[in-house]
Known about the structure:
Elements: E1 2-7, H1 16-27, E2 32-37, E3 40-43, H2 47-52, E4 60-66, H3 70-82
Antiparallel strand pairs: 1-4, 2-3, 2-4
Amino acid sequence: MIEYDLKIINQLGLHARPAALIAQTAGGFTSDIHLSKEQVTIDAKSIMGIMMLAAEHGSTLHLTVQGADEKEAAEAIKQLFENKFNEEF
């Protein structure tokens, strides 16, 4: 199992576009991928679950990945956050 804390550094937080990127990226892996904020944990392959987190700029999410391709999956999700979901603000 791999776990990371990921800070939301893009200005608009997790709105529809970043949520879709996370869900699409997570869906490409067989591992179980979950994001948590406070006491809420969601499946990162669910766009609605991601939107439900209502994660704004500056908040921190906890990523948990477990499965056969966990290293690749965790790195791919981590890169989305570090690259600000390719938003140029």
